[in-house]
Structures are given as C-alpha cells and as structure tokens.
Amino acid sequence: MNCELADGKIILIVDDNPANLELLSDLLDDAGFEIWVARDGESAIRKAEYAPPDIILLDVMMPGIDGFETCRRLKSNSSTNEIPVIFMTALSDTVDKVKGLNLGAVDYITKPFQNEEVLARVKMHLKLQKLTKTLAAQNLLLQQEIKQRDRAESALQQLNQELEKRVEERTKELQQAQVTLIQKEKMSALGQLVAGVAHEINNPIGCITGNIIYAKEYIQDLIQHVKLYQQQFPNPGNEIEAHGSEIDIEYLIQDLQSLISSMKAGSDRIHQISISLRNFSRADTDFKVPVNIHEGIDSTLLILKHRLKANDNRPEIKTIKEYGDLPLVECYPGQINQVFMNILSNAIDAFDEYSETHSYEEIAANPNTITIRTAYSAADRQAIVRIEDNGSGISEEVKQRMFEPLFTTKALGKGTGLGLSISRQIVVDKHGGELSCISTPGIGTEFAISLSV
Question: What stretches of 241-378 adopt beta strand conformation (E)?
C-alpha cells in the first residue's frame, strides 16, 4: 500500500462480527490507515456525521438497521453522501451485491476476505476520491479566476471566454471520466455475478441432465421386465395382485414415463437459462465480434423475467417480440446487452411507478406492454432495434436532458442518472451508431438503436 495514500486516511469498519472487525482492523492498520469501528448501522451513521471518514466498509447483515438501510441514510445525508461505501458480503449473495450498487455503494468485498483484494479495492477508491477532489479543486480555482477576470477591463474579455471554455471542457472531462469508471466497475461486477450464477447452475444441472437419460433407459428396461413377468405369470397370487392394485401399477407405469419426460424438459430449460446468463455476461474483447442481436435481447429479457411478472400492485408486463431478419452485427456484445438492460429496466421502473397511483383493475384494462421490433435496412446497412412501451411517456423538458450524466427523475436511491448516458456513450461513441427517443406523454415511449452492419 502506498504510504502517502494511507497516511492520515480514516477507514470506518461497520460489522457486528468481532472476528471480522479484528481481521480487517489489523490488516488496514498494518497498511498505515487510521481505523474506526462500529458494531451497528446507527452507531456508524452517528460517527460518520460527527467526523466523516474517508471510506466506509459496511456489512450487509447487522442487528437493528441492516447495511442497505444504513447506506441509504448515508447517501441521503448531505454531510455523508460523498463518503465511498464498500459493502462486505458473501459470494453467494448476488442479489445483495446488485442491490448495494444500486443504492450508491461504489464496490463490494467478498467474504471470506482476501487481504490483497481488500487492500487493492480500498487503494483504488482512495485514488478515485483523490482524483475527484483534485479535479474539483482545479475547477474551483478556474471559476475563481474567471470571476477575477470579469472585473477587469474589456480588453480581457477574450481571455475570460477562453477560461470559461477551459472550465467547461474540464467539467465534461470529469463527468466523462466518472461515467466511464462507473460503467466499467458496474459491468465488471454484474458480469462476475451473473457468470458466477451461471457456472453454479451449470454444474448440478449437467449432472441431473446426464443422469436422467440413463434413468429413463433403466426405467424402460424395468417396465419391460415387469411386463414379461405379467405375460409369463398371469396369476401371480393374491398378495402380489393386492399390492399391484394398491399402487395402481398400470397407472404408475404410464405416469412414470411422463414424469421422467417432464423432469428432462425442466432440466433442459434450466440449462438454457444458464446459457443465456453466460451470453449476457460474457466479457468484451479488445475488438468487435459478430453477434446475433436477438440472442442478446432474449438473454436480457430472461434476466429481467422476475421483474416482468405480476405483483401485488400490477398485472404481468407483457412482452411482444417482432424480430426481423438481422445479419450478424459487429459489436462489443457485453456493452450492447447493457444498453438493452438499461432501456428495458427504465420501462419497467416507469410501469412500477405508474402502479403506485393507479389501481390493479385500471392497469389490467390497459395492460403494460413492451414491444421489441428489429429490422435491417439494406440501403443504409443498419440493424435497427426499437424498444417501445405504452407507459406514461416522457415530457419534452425531461427528454431534452435525459442523456445528461447524473440526470434522473427517479426518487433518491432508485436511480443514478447514468443508465441512458452510458447507453448513448456505448451506442454513439463506441459503435458509431445512433440512439434516439420518441415519446408522447400519456401514450408511451420508443427508443431506437441503430448499429452499422
């Protein structure tokens, strides 16, 4: 660990497990940090408000308020919302990790702790924090310089304009650096989580699928053997006849084969889900590769399937796929899948928000629907994906700012304001394509993605 980076830096460790507190405290103390500890969320909030630390390592499961609620309160408080929060969670808690990132956490550390990983992640976020503060300080100095030059004579106006331009450029550079870093971090985290889940599913389901094939053959052989017995011994005796009648052997023979077939179909379905998860989370290479866009859309819909289902507030969100004949598209597949995820998630969020002010019956009368259309323009050599919803639509004022970094209309803790900004960067800057939006309040919204083939 860089001694200069660690010198004077305060790390607040929040965990109700004494062993974890001791392990992390010793590790980070040896690295030169000043360590504070808290055993619950309330104590952590009070300490952070009294004297903000540089970084908070926050456990998820704690007595009283849990880590998620603690993070939400920290991020809603102006005196603590800039403190980087790193969640501490178990490897299997994939849902917890994604939830933590959505609440504003910058990273997570997996239990059991790996010393090198803990130090590396803390070091990375301290560097990022230092970079952000440095750029902010530079911007402040430039703004102060502009104010001083404004008081000067008209001969200095040209210089002022140049300085203003420098401030604007530096601000855009800062926003772009932040968006790019967050995109890489979230894509990396999401990719690792989804790939891990797919791997864990694939191993046991492979065992089940392979054994079902042999089980079906063995059962068929046993059934044939029983039938031969029935042919050779038509009068097996009272005890055997009574037992056969009790278990309804003819129905059992017939239904057992159907049961095995159903199990095979179920295991095949889980195997397909595992493949879709791996397709969605696959890491991008340094160059574009030919990709079936429809597979990316299907994988994204599969991951979002639990959010499309009916809940207490609304019926199921219907999805309509009208796929055209698309050629393979040269792209970075992981990034394009992230664009689909961002747009579809926003549509689902809008439906959920609408359901808070409308009854179940009202929504059922005009079902929530997402329609996905694809087409190929041979003249322009463009693959076009249109994602349309029949939600409340977007106002013209919001539409003018929707692609700005950090702009969001969602409630605190429900959105970062980066989804559409990152999507536009991926489609336009990384792929030279187009991302547009057409929306009419009260009717719905359509996003169109164009990619060169």
Answer: 289-291, 318-322, 329-331, 369-377
What are the helix (H) ranges across 77-114? 94-102
Q: How far is CA 311 from the centre of its chain?
A: 21
Give ∠ CA 196-333-321 in degrees, rounded to 5.
95
Give Cβ neighbours of residue 295 (< 8 Å, ≥ 6 apart): 276, 279
Q: How far apart are CA 58 and CA 13, in angstroms?
A: 6
Query: For every one of its 453 residues, what pLDDT tens digit does the chain have, with 9 covering 90 and above?
Result: 444 556 678 999 999 999 889 999 999 988 889 999 999 999 999 999 999 999 999 998 888 899 999 999 999 999 998 899 999 887 566 677 788 888 888 888 888 888 888 888 888 888 888 888 888 888 888 888 777 776 666 666 777 778 778 877 777 666 666 666 555 555 554 555 555 566 566 667 777 777 777 777 878 888 788 888 778 777 777 888 788 788 787 888 777 877 787 777 777 767 666 666 666 555 455 678 899 999 989 988 887 888 899 998 999 999 999 999 999 999 988 889 889 988 998 899 899 989 989 999 999 999 999 999 999 999 999 999 999 999 988 888 888 888 776 666 665 555 555 678 888 888 998 899 999 999 988 899 999 999 998
Q: Give CA–CA dist 268/278, Å, rounded.
A: 15
pLDDT in tens, 137-171: 888 888 887 777 766 666 667 777 787 788 777 77
Tokens read off for 215: 């089980």
Pairing label, strands 434-440, 10-14: unpaired
Is residue 263 within 8 Å of residue 211, measured between CB atoms? no
Half-sphere exposure of 213 (CA within 13 A, CB side): 6
Q: Which amino acid belongs to residue 315? A: P
Using CA atoms, how far apart are residues 102 and 328, in angstroms rounded to an integer? 33
Contacts with 75 (C-beta within 8 Å, 6 or more apart), sequence order: 81, 85, 103, 104, 412, 413
Q: Which residues of 367-381 are buried (b: 16+ CB within 10 A; e: fewer)?
A: ebbbbbbbebeeeee
Q: Which two tokens stand for residue 199?
A: 């791997």
Q: pLDDT tens digits for 396-413?
A: 888 888 877 666 666 555
Say how far apart CA 323 and CA 361 lie, in whole Å.
31
What does the DSSP assignment read for 120-181? HHHHHHHHHHHHHHHHHHHHHHHHHHHHHHHTS-GGGHHHHHHHHHHHHHHHHHHHHHHHHH
Q: At 412, list the tokens.
A: 């605190």
Which three-class secondary structure state does DSSP give residue 48? helix
